[in-house]
Amino acid sequence: MVRPVSAALLLAVLPAAAGAADLTAKLHWYGQSAFRIDGPPVVYIDPFKLPDGLPKADIILVTHDHFDHCSPADVAKIRTARTVVIGPAEVAVKLRAPVETITPGQVRDVQGVTVKAVPAYNVDKPYHPRKDGKVGYVVTVGGVTYYHAGDTDLIPEMAGLAPDVALLPVGGTYTMTADEAARAARSIKPKVAVPMHYGSVVGSDADGGRFAKLLEGSGISVVVMQRE
User: Fold this and answer.
1) Cα–Cα distances in angstroms (integers) from residue 207 to residues 34, 46, 182, 201, in the given order
2) Could you say which DSSP state residue 130 is in?
């Protein structure tokens, strides 16, 4: 279960609040863009600075090769001989281990889970060029569809994705700001939005709160998670 979220952190509990708790009940955040989804199967996305003693991964999804998303040490910590790792070709080069490569628009069926890669790129900054083929993911685990946006700006390909849960970067500098992410959420139309990619390398905890505040009245529930 997700650790209890304090009133100070859960700033936008909109009409679907009970549903938001259900939809995020199997979601764990480890800071930055690192998440675990408890299935089965157990899915990690962009594992980084993971604590010891976590469940081993059935599937690991990596969005791109930057150090705070593609960490060989963290992948090794949760990987077994049966773990399937998926990511762009640049991830395979960095991990130097078996990776099922994927490009935007491609779909993989793994252990009963459909994994779709979607574009993730910058439109007004140089850090994540579209030509690199960095990705986000849409994945359904345990009947819940999650969209992990990766490192991205607000881009047209987000419109109407309509997942149950959208995990969106809000820290600015390399990705969307909280304001841009709130606009992205309105375009994506998830049931629940969860801010990420702040309070570590860039951004502060205030960015998560601002994101939640900006979506008040939108019909989108916002859950600002505590790091585990």
Assistant:
1) 17, 20, 11, 13
2) G
Rounded to the nearest 10 degrees, what angle do helices 205-214 and 178-188 cross at? 40
pLDDT in tens, 39-75: 899 999 999 999 999 999 999 999 999 999 999 999 9
pLDDT for the residue 47: 98
**In whole angstroms, what separates CA 7 from the centre of its chain?**
23
Give me the residue spans of the domains in the chain. Answer: 17-222
DSSP structural state of residue 107: E
Using one digit for the tens of pLDDT, what is the confidence trace for 107-139?
Answer: 999 999 999 999 999 999 999 999 999 999 999
Per-residue tokens: 63: 């969005």
Other CB atoms closer than 10 Å to residue 5's CB: what's the count?
16
* CATH domain 17-222 topology: Metallo-beta-lactamase; Chain A (3.60.15)
Q: What is the pTM of this model?
A: 0.91
What's the CA gap between 202 and 190, in Å, rounded?
Answer: 25
